[in-house]
Amino acid sequence: MRSGTRAASWRGGSAGDQPACASPVSRPSPSHARATSPARKAAEHKPGFRKLVKWRPGSEGRISHLKHHYGWDRTRLNGRHGADIWYGHGVLAHNLVKITALAS
């Protein structure tokens, strides 16, 4: 391999280094700076929407805590019914820990 040819093609090189056809796409990625409609802005500023936006990270944190500390990462019982029992026991264990902490 000649290094001169490789360097020439890297810099643009000759006409033989160009693709066979031009790309039909004039803009490869969409613009992400789109205007939000006034109706959407109004909906996002309502108290209910804001409450749900704030609630979601808390619920994900609770699920993560249950997965890592109470065996929710993998069910050891077979089927949907077994999974329901497994997760029920995890919730029961979590609630018992919370009740014990409140009682002491």
Characterise the protein shown here.
With 104 residues, this protein is mainly α. It has a domain at 46-104. The chain has four helices and no strands. The protein has helices at residues 3-10, 38-44, 47-69, 79-103. It starts with a helix and ends with a helix. The model has no long low-confidence stretch (mean pLDDT 75).
Blueprint of the fold:
Layout: H1 3-10, H2 38-44, H3 47-69, H4 79-103
Category by helix and strand content: mainly alpha
Q: Gap between N and C termini, in Å?
A: 77 Å
Q: What is the count of DSSP helices, taking H or I runs of 4+ residues? A: 4
> Into which percentage range does the β-strand content fall?
under 5%
Helical coverage, percent range: 55-70%
How many distinct beta strands?
0
Radius of gyration: 29 Å
Mean pLDDT: 75
Order of helices and strands: HHHH
Shape: flat
Please summarize the sheet with the most strands: none
**Unreliably modeled segments:** none
Provide the descriptors you would attach to this structure in a database record:
104 residues; mainly alpha; 4 helices; flat
